[in-house]
Design brief:
By secondary structure, this protein is mostly helical. It has helices spanning 3-24, 30-47, 53-83. The protein has one domain (3-83). It is built from three helices and no strands.
Length: 84
Amino acid sequence: MRAFNLYLLFIVIASCLTNTILAVTGQNDLTVYFTLNVIVFLVITLLHVYLNPRARRSLSAIAVVLFGGFMVIVLLKVIDVLSS
């Protein structure tokens, strides 16, 4: 199995497990789902650094966008805490 196919398989399995566990535990907050899926993506991407350079550049661009979304969520939570 090629490295990229293995990477995709790990991403799909980890995301499915994460979302299933969150659904079973009754989590209703969408930010929790987004945050945990971003963490799963970043960890698995870091574990698969041996991908070819073109794939690595593309995944890095996706990681930057997801990290930006994560930072927006953190900023909104901080504003919520400071305002109340």
